[in-house]
Each structure stands twice: as C-alpha cells, then as structure tokens.
Task: structure prediction
Amino acid sequence: MIFDYNVIWENLPLYLGGVLVTLKLLLIALALGLAMAIPLGLMRVSKSQLLNFPAWLYTYVIRGTPMLVQLFLIYYGLAQFEAVREGLLWPYLSDATFCAILAFAINTSAYSAEILAGSLRATPHGEIEAAKAMGMSRAKLYRRILLPSALRRALPQYSNEVIMMLHTTSLASIVTLIDITGAARTVSSQHYLPFEAFITAGAFYLVLTFILVRLFKSAERRWLVYLAPRKA
Amino acid sequence: MKTLALLGALALSMLSPLAVAEEAKPLRIGIEAAYPPFAYKTPEGNITGFDYDIGNALCEEMQVKCQWIEQEFDGLIPALKVRKFDAVLSSMNITEERLKSVDFSKKYYNSPARLAMKAGTALNDPLVDLKGKKVGVQRASIYDRYASDVFAPAGIEVVRYSSQNEIFLDLAAGRLDATLADAVNIDDGFLKTDAGKGYALVGPTFSEAEYFGEGAGIAVRKGDTALADKFTAAIAAIRANGKYKEVQDKYFDFDIYGD
Result:
C-alpha cells in the first residue's frame, strides 16, 4: 500500500483548524497556569505551614494523578451532579473548550509551581544577603531579586513543561474538540487511513515543538546570558 | 527442473503443517463492548449482548472456536486490516464506503436510525428544526457519515464522540440537543435508564440505503470471501433452526432482522 497524499491534502483545512485549536488551548492554559503557579510557588517555599501545606497538597494531588483522569473528572464527572448542572458555572462547564482549558491550566500550574519553587530554593545566598544589606524589605526582596532571578533560572525547565503541555493538549480530542489529534482521528475514521492521518498530526506537532524550542532558546539567550558558560 | 520439483515439494511440506495449525487456531472476532443491548459489559466485566450471543451461536453453527477481542469502534476496521482479528461482529452496518476496504457477510439484523431528544420536542423537518443545534454521533459510524453529509451542510452542528455511551452522558447533561443513532441502542442504552428520563425518540425514521445500507453484517478482510460466505450460511442456518429467535427474544420484543 502506498501513502495516500490526496486524503491529507483534501483535509488540510481540518488540520489547520486543528492547529488553531491546539494553540488556543495551549496558550490560554499556559497563561492561566503560570498566573496560578507564581503564588503557589511562593507558598511552596514559605516557612509557614499554613501557606506551605495547602500548596504542597495541591501540587501533590495534581502531579499524582494522570491528566486524562483529571479531564474526565471535570468534563464527564462534574456533569453527573444536578447541583452542578443547575449551578451558575454550568454555561461554562458545559463547554468542552472551557473544561479542557481548565483541566490543562490546573495541571500545568502544579508542575510550574514546583519548577518555580525549586528555582527559588536554588537562589544563591549571596544575592539575598546583598539585598538585605541594601535594606530591602521582604516584599521588595521578592519583587526585585528572588522572583526575577528564579523565573529566569526556571526557563530551561519551564520550556520542557511547555512542550509537554503541547503534547498533552492532544487529550482534548477525547472531549470532542477537533485539535490536531482530533483532526487526525476524524480523517483516520472517515478514510480508514490511520497511518497517513496520524503521521500528519505528528508532523504538525514536530513543527510546533521546533518553534517552541527556538523561542525558548532565544529567550534564554536574552535573559539567561549571565549564566551561560564563558566563551573561550 | 529437479530443483524446481524439490522446491515445490519443500513448499508443500511447509504448507501442510501450517494448514493444520490454521484449523486449530481460534477464529478471532473484534467487538466494541459499549453498545447496549448489542454488546456491553455485565457488572462482572464479561462481554454480553445480542452481537455476542449471535456470534457465539454462529461459531457453534460453523463448528469453530471463537475468541472475542475488544476494540473501540473507530479502530475495528484498521485492526481487522492489520490482522489483529479475522472478523468484526459489532453492529457494523454494510455500506458502500466500508465495502471499499472490507467484505461483509449478509446482514444479521437491521434496525432503523432515529433521533433522541427531550420528550415533547416537536420535530417536523429535522433539517429545519435542528438548525444551530448540537447533534452527537459516534465517530466513523454510519450516523456520523449521514450527519456530516446531510446535517452539517444544513447548519446543524455535528459533534463526534468515541462511544455512544459518552453521547448519552452529554445528552443527559444538556451539552447536546440530540443524538442520531440506532433506535434500539437509544431505547435500551439510554431511554430505559435513569439518565434517559424525560427523553424520547422524536422525528422521522432515517433509512436512506445510500447511508444506512441493508443492515449490520459481519466484516472480514477484503478478499476473504470464504469466511464471509461461511458466516452468511451460518446466519441462514440459525434463522432456520430457531437459534436466532431464541437470542432475539432475550433482548427484543420485536423482529430485529427486518425484511
């Protein structure tokens, strides 16, 4: 059997629509996730148990359960309860896109929070001591020194998280969304050509991954240059 | 010449044990066990249902040992083609489109396609009344193809799912306005359950042969007509000896074979 290009060519609009859905899911989920991850990360390095424990529990539960399980719980699980179906949030929760973004954002916020916490803990003592010697308050210390430097040093790890999230968005096809994988499943089932359909999806993910890697490389070159190995 | 004869003998000697092995190997049948009452799981996790019982009756009739292999519906034909199993007996309707990639036995049942919606919905012309509404269909099913070709161009939003059970969940949750599916499947898998309270079969019966074919048959790999014929003969045999009616009466109180 030979590779059937025609089917892929005819369905290209479906795939391109899928790319847009994938990017929309990814970008919104990442933005929300990061916004949640910063306070969570700060809580995770706090000495106060009152702050630390809830954040620890959150990241432990989210990182300890598969993404697919979380998505099923949010999409199919919540809909089971009449109180939810008649609640104020139902117009949102009945929407597959909203459910997928919510699940992805919760998931990435837990991982990003741990990345940020690790990066905060690894802040060189000298930087903190210098800030204290300058008479900075705690809030100023966090705002001017700890967070900017931790966020920078978290970049390489965070780029991994972003790429993992890109691949995780393929789960959206399970809750009826036509993302790249959803497009591939549609093409595969309509033409019985799973190889062509999924290899095309794979190619799209490869291209997106490549773009993300390049973006993070240039971000690292801009913000992490002071940590790069010295050129001979 | 001598070498050729030798090669021929060698080939023959290699073929015969293979042929024997073929005889002893069980016939592997693919099924999707999430389509009540045709195929579903008992609380203990065993497969049961009309398809399953008919399949076992056919195997008994053909005097072969059968092994059931589960697979999601949209993966059944691909898995059949790559020889993960030898036949598909999973309420698969015989259609032109599918005949391009597989062969079928004659039908073993034929039940109509209907829409399920909130009870009391007035539906005169689905194409007009459903405009802008969401209709759930099982991906790669004949209902998907019909909905994609006829519903979607009329401005009806077609939402595709992996299994019919997920559609019933979303219909009950109010995410969908309707589902287009097999009438028996809707009745047994949804309307008779608690979740299906307040819903009903509405609108006309869909039976365009171009989409819905002549009924559900047993799919085999393209060219495997010997197996398809064996199934066809066995279907005729169990219909004649009363075995078919026995299975039918277990699940339905009407004639599911259709004429």
Observations:
- The CA atoms of residues 220 and 230 of chain B lie 11 Å apart.
- Chain B has two domains: 26-110+214-251, 113-212.
